[in-house]
Amino acid sequence: MAALLATVDPGKLTYGQPQGWNCALCGKPLREDQLLGTVEMTYGGDTTEQVELWVCRPLCRAVAPDA
User: Fold this and answer.
1) Is residue 11 assigned to a domain?
2) pLDDT in tens, 1-37
3) Domain that holds residue 36
4) Are 38 and 63 in contact (CB under 8 A)?
5) Is residue 10 assigned to a domain?
């Protein structure tokens, strides 16, 4: 999972992804999920927060076609 987490650009996440509503990798709404890891996000240029990112369970077909 660490290798997948390294591919995530926090600046490109949509609103629902850091909220845990959408998969951090494919962007689809989460039904069943698993923790990918945490990233540091900056809001408004000065507020920094550690955010948990969640992904599809099983992993998204776009990321893991054999899942």
Assistant:
1) no
2) 889 999 999 999 999 999 999 999 999 999 999 999 9
3) 16-67
4) no
5) no
